[in-house]
Structures are given as structure tokens and as C-alpha cells.
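User: My collaborator sent over this chain with a note saying "see what the structure looks like." That's all I know about it. Can you take a look?
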Amino acid sequence: MTQSVAIIGAGMVGLATAWHLQEHDIRVTVYERDHVGAGSSWGNAGWLTPALTAPLPEPAVLRYGVRAVVSPSSPVYVPLRPDPRLLRFLTGFARHSTERHWGRGMRAYAPMNRRALDAFDELTDNGVAATTRPADPFLAAFRTPDERAALVDELEHIQDAGQAVKYDLLTGPEARAIEPALSSAVGAVIRLHDQRYINPPAFVGELARAVVGRGGRIVEGASVSGVRPDNGGAYLTTREDVDGTNRYDAVVLANGAWIGRLARRFGVRQRVQAGRGYSFSVDGEHLPSTPVYFPAQRVACTPLHGPDGTRLRVAGMMEFRAPDAALDQRRIDAIVNAARPLLNGVDLDDRRDEWVGSRPCTADGLPLIGGTRAPGVYVAGGHGMWGIALGPLTGKLLAHQIATGVAPPELVAFDPLR
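Assistant: Without extra context I'll predict from the sequence alone. Here is the result:
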């Protein structure tokens, strides 16, 4: 019987897993190499958008071409001299960027997306003192109707995969009547319904407080250097020896882009590659009052509400580099240059909190959730851009598997040993 579990990683996925394990009366200890929410959870756009949650490898990716992806200003960037492991990942990524693979992946995502928002409500209705906000409306903005056609086609394919999506098509003037922050360069818009958003650091922080308030432990500044299986459980060793060497009945690897360093020895062959995203916050006279997405530029804008007022988080880029590489100012500049013509009343030069974080991406675009070849060692990660949106449900389903020994049907497609 599982009585104690260690979780490596204090982001949304790891903390949600801890919270749901507590629902099964299991003791939890969360180890975090930095501080709570310091990874990709911190600078995320905070969108809870089931209508857009889909596999990252898609046919449109293949249209970028080599010249585009090696340009520092490209929304998708690859270094000129990638290492052999990155080349293998990119080859697999390209192989999965077909309609057939994308459709199969979307059918795996659809059951998760249908339950994703309810999983947030379960947390906030049961002691997590955070809020989700309705994205009323959620606007995806384009320069022209022709530019918009690609996302309309994708939404139709998402519906074909069994997921309900409600949306309207608006002209530029119709959209500006709703959101004056859109500039006159915007000529076509998709208005999505039934989506939400959060302030990611605030939500993750409250989730951590709830875990501790229910008796859990969070050990910050602890880089886990070793996981050694032992008779159905595992020993955990931290590099800084901040907590000694401890034995647990189970261990969950939820440390984002670093999962592979510990998971490979337990049979997980899917490479988890850092798909680095950049973000910053700005002020202005007329900030958007609701999330705005510029799909052609891959730029996301989210109003973040805090005790000191509201600022706009602007996020973008997919940069395939090492997770610990330094922030590249050229990527920030590229986001600014892409967003500036499309927004009014936003001071993109008054930037704070410039940030880069490593989204954990897999070549097939599907997360890794479930058991490994070592009894008692589990993986929860590889969600790409959707770790915030699917984190609470991932934690709920994996906690059920750990506590009962039965994998929920939603997790079959996400088997870490596939």
C-alpha cells in the first residue's frame, strides 16, 4: 500500500499531483531545485483554453522552412548548429507534423480537454485560495481573413476529434468594438467562447500553500541527483544533501524539461526537449481586458491581476535550445516587434519581468503520464505549452493510478514507455 510519495518539481503538474495524492491520504514531499513555480509555470501565459490545447507538431510547422527557423526573429527558432540529440528530436518532431499524426494526437487530447476546467474548479472549491477568470471573450486576431483561415480549419479538425468548440468570426471593426486595444492592422478575428485564464505564479503559489496546509512538505533549493528503486519503492538523493537520502513508496518525476535526466534509466525513451518560451509584462493606457492571441506571430497577451494592479503579460517564441541557456534578448525584441503594430495603448518599451522558461516538449506532442519500468517510479510531464491548462487533471489522474494501481483510460495514449 502506498503511504508516502516524493514529487520532483514544484510546478503546476507536480503540486497538483501532490494535492490529489493527499486526497487519497498519502503523505507527500515535493522537491524543487529552485523555488515553487520557478520553472515554466512562472512565465506561462496562463491560458485555460481547451479549444486550443492540441499537439504541438502540426502540418503548419513544416511550412516554416530552414531559413525561417534559424532566424532569431522567427516564432519557432532552432540554433544553427544543434547537437545530435536535438537533431534526433527535430527529426521525430517533423515526422509527427502530419495531419494523420496530429489527428491521432488530438483524439488523445480531447478527453483531457473536456475535463480540464472542472479539475481547476475541484481545487478552488476545496481550499486552494486562487481564482480562474472567464476569458469573456478570448480573441485570436489576424491581419486578414486569409491569414485567419488556418486556425478556423484547425478548430474544425478539433471538433472532428470529438471536442466541442464554440466560436464566432468577427471583422476588425467588430473586434475593436469589443477590445479597443486592437490596432487598425487587425482585420479578422476569431472570438472563442467558454475559455478561462489565470495568473500562473499566484495560482501555483496558492496550490503550494494548500499542499503544505494539509500536511505536505515542500523542500526548495533541492536538486535531486538520484532515484534508486528498492523493492517497490525508491530512495531519493538530493545534490545539496538538504534532506539526506530518504525512502518513499513511490516517486513522481515532474521536473519539466529535465525529466529525461532521471527517467531514461527507467525505460522512458521519449526525449523531453526544452521548447523555451519568453515573456515580459508591460503597462499602458488601454491594456486588453481579456486574453488576446496573435497566432501568425505566435504572441500571447494576458492581463495579470495582482495586488498592485493589472499588467499585461506578453509571451511568445518556441526556441529549441538547452533548458539552462541564458535569456537571449533578441527573442524579446522579436516579440516586441511582432506585437507592436497590432496593439494600441500598450507601452511595449516599459518592460518588467523579462523571462525565459523551458517548456517540456516531446517529439509526438503528447505528454508522458504514468508508470515506468521501475515499480514505484512515475512520470508526469512533457505537456509542451499545456502544463498549466492540463496540470490539475494530470495530477488527479496520476494520483488515482498511484493510489489504486489502475491507470485511467485517459492516460493510455500518454504512457511514458510508448
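A starting point for your reply to your collaborator: The first helix runs from residue 12 to 23.
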